[in-house]
Write a structure and sequence with these properties.
Jelly Rolls; about 425 residues; 11-stranded antiparallel sheet; 24 strands; 3 domains
Length: about 425
């Protein structure tokens, strides 16, 4: 047989298969190719559909944020940033001289790189910088850090109008404060907060994002040829060779001073500060997934409104497939072992926190994947994790009624399926 007839036969075969697949109700469209085809689509509503759900707090882990959220919104939200400079340059090389200790400091500045995505900036905003180092308390204790945000510890500030706010911010610092740290060979740990006459929310880049803060100062006041010293952030604690990743995480991180959104019973939360994730475990009858083909599966969630923000506040929520097997009994840890976004669940939710009503998420691809898990020895449970995108970078949170809510509010699932086709010699 020549190559051309083979190609034509293949094309006709593909066309016939497509024609059969497109005819779900009857075989009238292609009586000679798929005679007497009559596929009935079944619909069912599973209520309740969840075995249970849980909300876990603290995502991402401290110091792993891709940005530092600096926000002040009345009595609801107050977040600040901590930046550690635990290794300061204490010597410099004068022109035509030898290396010597820094005798003076001039033009000290903290350089921050602004990330404007999702920012809410009023007509003007003030950046304030504090010396937050407290050697008498645990260096990650939130209470000890917050206690250092006082007038006596403020060592720098600068105010910008919104229209003149640059992408690279240079906040002047007290030269005496920097020089004292250099002479005593002590670390410099800075706290940053923003204030304004109205609500403000913005973020600056961190070490994890590739554009960390920098400390700048001149090592002399009378030699204009000496270059400005630039110091990058570092953390010397916790000590020990087994903690390098933790030290890197604590180089800069977000400090939550206040998060006053109301807590409601029978709800699950996604987003917020610190970040929240919802872990949902499903109870889908096996007869649906094992012997049928799911053509549609819609998870219905009822949103509970939050008295926060306005209609311009929007957030995206992704459903991640839980991968942790039954041997992982710590569900907070299981909420960390997940797939990337849009894998098996290529749908997402666009949420306004103040809104209410039913929200739908298409997850038919996930149900088909669950049907193929029956051959595994220890398959992971049928669970997903709802997660904000981005996480820990926006002061927005969504609430949905949970599996413990009254009927009519709790999550349900509508599934459409057809009997699985089998082929063989009669």
């Amino acid at each position: 047989m020549s190559r051309r007839p083979v190609v034509l036969l293949a094309i006709f075969a593909i066309a016939a298969a497509v024609a059969c697949n497109e005819s779900l109700d009857s075989g009238a469209a292609c009586p000679s190719l798929c005679p007497s085809q009559n596929i009935v689509i079944h619909d069912t509503l599973i209520d309740p559909v969840l075995v249970f759900d849980s909300t876990f707090v603290g995502y991402p882990e401290r110091g792993q944020e891709l940005g530092m959220l600096l926000a002040t919104r009345g009595d609801s939200i107050d977040t600040r940033g901590i930046i550690r400079f635990d290794s300061l340059t204490t010597q410099f090389l004068p022109t035509g001289d030898t290396l010597q200790a820094i005798p003076h400091v001039d033009s000290s500045q903290l350089r921050l790189v602004l990330d404007r995505r999702g920012a809410k900036i009023p007509s003007q905003v003030t950046f304030e910088v504090y010396d937050v180092d407290d050697t008498t308390a645990a260096d990650t204790a939130s209470a000890a850090l917050l206690a250092r945000f006082t007038g006596a510890q403020r060592i720098g500030s600068r105010t910008w109008l919104r229209d003149s706010l640059p992408d690279t911010l240079l906040v002047p610092l007290a030269d005496s404060a920097v020089l004292d740290k250099i002479k005593a060979q002590r670390r410099l740990r800075l706290g940053v907060r923003v204030s304004a006459s109205a609500s403000v929310s913005l973020r600056v880049h961190t070490l994890e994002s590739g554009f960390p803060a920098r400390l700048l100062y001149k090592p002399t006041t009378n030699d204009t040829t000496v270059k400005i010293i630039t110091v990058g952030p570092t953390s010397a604690t916790p000590a020990g060779s087994e903690n390098p990743e933790i030290r890197q995480d604590l180089t800069d991180f977000v400090l939550v001073a206040r998060y006053g959104l109301p807590q409601y019973a029978n709800t699950m939360a996604i987003g917020g500060m610190p970040g929240r994730r919802a872990y949902l475990r499903f109870n889908v009858p096996s007869y649906i997934t094992d012997s049928n083909t799911v053509v549609r599966a819609t998870l219905r969630l009822t949103q509970r409104p939050l008295p926060f923000g306005d209609e311009t506040d929007t957030m995206v929520i992704h459903a991640h497939v839980a991968l942790a097997g039954p041997q992982v009994t710590d569900l907070r840890r299981a909420a960390n072992i997940i797939t990337t976004a849009l894998l098996l669940v290529n749908d997402s939710l666009l949420i306004v926190p103040r809104d209410s009503g039913v929200r739908t998420l298409e997850i038919y691809g996930l149900l088909r994947a669950w049907a193929n898990q029956k051959t595994l020895v220890n398959p992971p449970p049928h669970a997903v994790v709802l997660r904000a995108a981005p996480e820990g970078l926006l002061p927005l949170e969504a609430r949905f009624y949970s599996s413990t809510a009254p009927p009519g509010l709790r999550p349900v699932m509508r599934i459409s399926y057809v009997p699985r086709a089998t082929f063989g010699v009669p």
